[in-house]
Design brief:
This protein is α/β, with parallel strands linked by helices. The protein contains 10 helices and 8 strands. The strands form 2 sheets. The protein has a 5-stranded mixed beta sheet with strand order 4-5-6-7-8. The chain has a 3-stranded parallel beta sheet with strand order 1-2-3.
Amino acid sequence: MPASDPQETWPVGLNADLHCHSVVSDGTLTPDELARRALGNGVQLWSLTDHDEVGGQAQAAQAARSIGLPFLTGVEVSVTFADATVHIVGLGFDDTDAQLLQGLYATRGGRDGRAREMAQGLAQAGIPGTFEGALKYAGNPELISRSHFARYLVEIGICSDIPEVFRRYLTEGKPGYVPHRWATLRNCVRWIRDAGGVAVIAHPGRYGFNPTLEYALFSEFIAHGGQGVEVVTGSHFAHEYPKYADMAREFGLAASRGSDFHSPHESRVDLGALPPLPSDLEPVWHLLQAHIRQ
């Protein structure tokens, strides 16, 4: 598949959506359906970023090419930092890179055991059968996650919507919460960079870090070779956009943009529906122009 001309200029105001999920991880649409939804919503540059898995990349790239939608390879890697889970998005990498594939496989490896522990906690809280119920929603059993449990608990009427499930059962201190040790920040950034891609801190406002920990995250990320941060994202509220625009300026990071879309019925923001990046920031796609497939 041909890549973009590296001399071509992709403007900062581009309607790029570089963060979304398919049935390959915890979304509800196929990569092909996502590509068509993105194009229909006016997206001009798209990436599929399933959790710890690149199994949907070939279908996504083929679908995007068939409808004339410029595409970047993508993944969202689960990282443990300061005893919390942080997500790093990789963009524009070689999705056949052996080191990256091995790292992602190892990162996925603990999900089954974690899911069974979650089910045990929920059973003790009076909700049996949740592992089997969640598994129905997992297109890839290796990637069974809290989102799949949440959909099942809504299905059986325990909660009225996904956010209620997380509040009552799946966050720290609740019956279905089980922590997990993911990849290290250093290894994650190295896998992405060595595969030719750019590493991006995903939705930093979601982690609830105090200023000291947040500064440490950004500093360590850059020390390992990270180059970008999500500024405008469906997982931030509008008042957080200026804060992370300032962080991008302070740390010299390229800015990324993505809806974090999972489902037409669950996501706060649809594909392509975000405001543009601030015009003075360097967009992450400027670092990746030679990697854009079209």
